[in-house]
Design a protein that fits this description.
This protein is an alpha/beta fold. The strands form two sheets. The chain has an eight-stranded mixed β-sheet, with helices on both faces. The chain has a four-stranded mixed β-sheet with strand order 4-3-10-9, covered by helices on one side. About 40% of the residues are buried. The model has no long low-confidence stretch (mean pLDDT about 95). Bound molecules: nicotinamide-adenine-dinucleotide and ketopantoate. Nicotinamide-adenine-dinucleotide binds next to helix 1, helix 3 and strand 9. Pathway: Cofactor biosynthesis; (R)-pantothenate biosynthesis; (R)-pantoate from 3-methyl-2-oxobutanoate: step 2/2. One of its GO terms (molecular function) is 2-dehydropantoate 2-reductase activity. Catalyzes the NADPH-dependent reduction of ketopantoate into pantoic acid.
């Protein structure tokens, strides 16, 4: 029998993965926060995926973290700031050699999770897929994209990539996953905070060309210092390309702030500034950007960590 995918976090990406795996006949179990959420989930009758305007519901079985069934494969689909605690709760249930797939954006949470579960293999992911919730237990598949998966310490691809093929989840195994994560982090640092501070769509940054370019210079310096020259290559051109290609969109950080949600700042700009300080690298514009963003978040009553 094939290994069950436990999905931790029934949010946008967790639901997007759970429904597609379930649709392909792959064994999936959802882990929700507590008994109250489990009751609410059972009352809803399943997870609903809205794709190309049509909705389908999948009665994915669910449980709470307290359940005692062993876990061999865990998709961690929480926000970066919840991942470590959420995984720590499940640590006693992990089998020896269990595999965790970490969907978190940015950097920092992956190492924190790995330190909590040294017995497990942690695989990081970087995704350009887009999804949002339009109701409890309902997700809209908003942007088709790609997910890169990799394990910096162990280059061999796992066999369960076949489940992703069956589920039609576009993916690629990457032996350079850290480079991908750093590149995405740099893009997010150059774009997302400025869209929040200027209150604009990504395309609005075309009016702030110099500010973006200055950040790209500092981010390039940081990536080089971190031993990530490939992630630094032509960064400014790539940032400009993304700004143009996504001109009509609001960045994920802009949307979090607009919906009064906690941002993942500590795992994006915060992580970049922390690593720069560790390398004794002086990046004044990046630090100033973080200060401005923190002040802005405080002024809105939002957490800055
Ligand atoms: P989300 O907020 O929609 O979902 C997170 C879910 O995790 C929530 O339902 C929350 O209740 C649950 N959760 C948190 N702690 C838990 C716990 N202890 N036990 C059980 N459930 C718990 O977040 P999301 O948008 O799916 O994002 C997840 C990660 O994926 C983020 O790091 C995000 O940056 C990244 N990402 C998201 C998208 C997207 O389009 N949504 C795209 C690329 C990357
Ligand atoms: O990933 C993004 C986000 O909004 O989080 C893009 C579109 C690349 C902007 O940084």
């Amino acid at each position: 029998m094939s290994t069950t995918w436990h999905i931790l976090g029934a949010g946008s990406l967790g639901t997007l993965w759970a429904t597609r795996l379930a649709r392909a006949g792959v064994a999936v179990r959802l882990i929700v926060r507590d008994e109250n959420r489990l009751n609410a989930y059972h009352a809803a009758g399943g997870l609903t995926l809205v794709e190309h305007g049509s909705a389908s519901t999948y009665a994915v079985p669910a449980e709470t973290p307290d359940s005692d069934a062993p876990i061999s494969r865990l998709l961690v689909a929480c926000k970066a700031y919840d991942a470590e605690h959420a995984v720590a709760q499940l640590a006693p249930r992990l089998t020896p050699g269990a595999e965790l797939i970490l969907l978190q954006n940015g950097l920092g949470s992956q190492d924190a999770v790995a330190a909590r579960v040294p017995q497990a293999r942690c695989i990081s992911a970087s995704s350009t897929e887009g999804a949002f919730r339009d109701g409890d237990w309902r997700v809209v598949f908003a942007g088709h994209g790609y997910t890169w998966l990799g394990d910096a310490g162990h280059p061999v691809a796992p066999i369960w990539l076949d489940d992703l093929n069956a589920a039609g989840i576009p993916h690629e195994w990457s032996t350079e996953i850290l480079t991908r994560l750093w590149r995405k982090l740099a893009l997010n640092c150059a774009i997302n905070p400025l869209t929040v501070l200027h209150g604009c769509r990504n395309g609005g940054l075309q009016d702030h060309h110099c500010e973006v370019a200055t950040l790209c210079v500092e981010l390039t310096e940081l990536l080089d210092r971190c031993g990530q020259p490939a992630a630094a290559e032509d960064l400014q051109q790539e940032v400009e390309r993304v700004i143009q290609a996504t001109a009509a969109n609001y960045s994920s950080m802009y949307q979090d702030v607009a919906h009064q949600r906690r941002t993942e700042i500590s795992y994006l700009l915060g992580h970049a500034c922390k690593v720069a300080a560790r390398h004794q690298l002086n990046l004044p514009h990046l630090n100033q950007l973080q200060q401005r963003l923190v002040t802005h978040l405080h002024s809105l009553g939002l957490p800055s960590d």
